[in-house]
Structures are given as structure tokens and as C-alpha cells.
Amino acid sequence: MSAEPQPQSPWQTATITRIEKCTPRVTSFWFQPSRPFIHLAGQHVDVRLTAPDGYQARRSYSIASAPGAGIELAIERLDDGEVSPFFHDVAEIGDEIELRGPLGGHFIWEASDGGPILLVGGGSGVVPLMAMVRHRTLQKSAAPMALVFSTRVWDEVIFRDELIGLDDRRDGFDLVLTLTREQARRPSDYSRRVDARMMMQAMERLPKAPRLAYVCGSNAFVSAAAEALIEAGVPAGLIRTERYGV
């Protein structure tokens, strides 16, 4: 994520305990930190890699796991990146890395906050929103929640099976997928970029107007989605945004 590092949070080592492929370009890594780590849904961590010559590269990644469920980072491969190729090509279970966090205090949701909540994610911007979805499930929250998730193609829908499974439960969570470069695979989904009409239809799945809306993705996506929400009638003061990028 794009948040500035917070110096008051110390670095610590964390061991990779599990690796799982999510999509062709996104892989999840689970970490066991060396010290206690308690986060909120929506927060992120800084990751630091140090080369043998002392050169350091640092990136921020949102936490995909719910509070109390360990640390899962879903890392997208960026071919020109300094950190993501290491995780995709080199990292193995048992390796130790340095991380700092949890970081971020604005883009968070707790079950006690209630709802309805509207989540809008583009690509890997779904990661912190997934932490909120999972937190709702683990807490058995009855807060109504809808997720609008935009990707280019079906195979790039991160956490696809898990999200569809949660949607099928019909317990107050609704999933809206929109594919920008393929035809929709489900009757309730879309085949276009996010727009005001899509936001209005997503809000119709909630019992009343959203208490808060969270938007995460690239700069361009966040700008377009926030504008669509405002056009759909969501007050700007209720929209929380998080942008990712190198």
C-alpha cells in the first residue's frame, strides 16, 4: 500500500510457514512473526529485504488475513519490481524476512463498527477488503456487507473460490464481480468497468444505505470508483480510500 512507514513500529523477523498460488500472478505467503503481532482488518505491513552487499529494498503489503488468523500477504508479481520477484522466484517455506507493523489506522473496519458496508476493490486492491470480509465471518457478524470486485479476467479473481463460497451462504454478504476484458461468468455479475449504475445496483443488495464505503486499488481505479460512488449518492465523507503502487 502507499501509506508512509511509521518509525514507532519496530522491525522484526518473520518466518514463511506456507505458500499458496492464488492466481497466475498472485501468491499468498503466511508468516510467523518472532514477536506478538495483533492487527486490524485493513492494515498493512512494511517488508524489507537486504542483499549481501547491504542494499535494502522495502515495500508495503496489505494483510489479507483476519485479525487473530496470522499474517497472510497476497503478493502480486511485478516483473520490474525489486521485492515481488524475490517472493515468487526465490522465497521458500522456512525463510526469514523482516517486517514492520501493523501499520495504518484510517482504512480499517471492525465488526463492532457495524454496517451496512460497501467494499470496492480493483485487482490486488481486494486484499485489505478480504481481511474485512474474513473478519466479519470469523466474528459471526450480522453486519450487511457487499463487495464489488473488478478484475480483467476470471482467472485473475483473487480468493475466487472462497468469495463465491461466502456469497453462496446468503448470510448478509454479497459478492459482485465485474470483468473488464471477459464476459461475466455468473448471471449477477458484470462485464465492464465500475460505474455509478453498478454502484447503485450493489447498494440495492444492502438493506439500507452504506454506513461506510471502502475503495482500494490503483490510483486510476480508486479515482473512478470514488467518483462512481459519489454519483450514486454516497457522501464523500463516508468513502475511505487506499491506493497501491510502487
TrEMBL record:
An example Pfam family from this entry, by short name, is NAD_binding_1
Instruction: Tell me the domain of life.
Output: Bacteria
Q: Which InterPro entries match?
A: Cbr1-like_FAD-bd_dom, FAD-bd_FR_type, Flavoprot_Pyr_Nucl_cyt_Rdtase, FNR_nucleotide-bd, MRET, OxRdtase_FAD/NAD-bd, Riboflavin_synthase-like_b-brl
Every FAD-binding FR-type domain range: 9-109
Q: Which cofactor does it need?
A: [2Fe-2S] cluster
This protein's name: Ferredoxin reductase
| Organism name | Mesorhizobium dulcispinae
